[in-house]
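seq as requested:
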Amino acid sequence: MDLPLLEETTLRDSEGAERRLGDLWADKPVIVVFLRHFGCHLCREHATILRERYEEVTSRGADIVAIGTGSVRYAEAANAAAVKSVTPFGLFSPRSWPGAWTARKNGHKVHKAGKRVTQLGATFVIGAGSQVRFDHVDQHTADHADLEQVFASLPERVA
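struct tokens:
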């Protein structure tokens, strides 16, 4: 990962404001999740679990940022984080089938594909400051980080 480059990358947040990524974790740890695309049922399941545990994250003085595929700047962020890509054939790797089946069984369906669907995902815990506390770069489409390990890298609960 090229952390200085990732920190200097600016992306639009959900309200359209430009945000320098490094500012997000300057003062607190942030779980940074790169999603393949927002229509991916595996990514939707991963994001749903994180959303369900959001209060636990904030009670530890941390936050969550999800980065999907988008314009060139989103690709630059993924490249700075050393997020991998696969060939179109790699999207259907047999290693992904059990996770895909579980996601469907849990009610997550594939929606409209985003840009750069061959990008894999990744999960990092960064901060406070320029400290990488946890990193996991997905090896296939269902290879999301073990969230218990992610949460173990966060500070203990804030009183």
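The chain has a mean pLDDT of 80.
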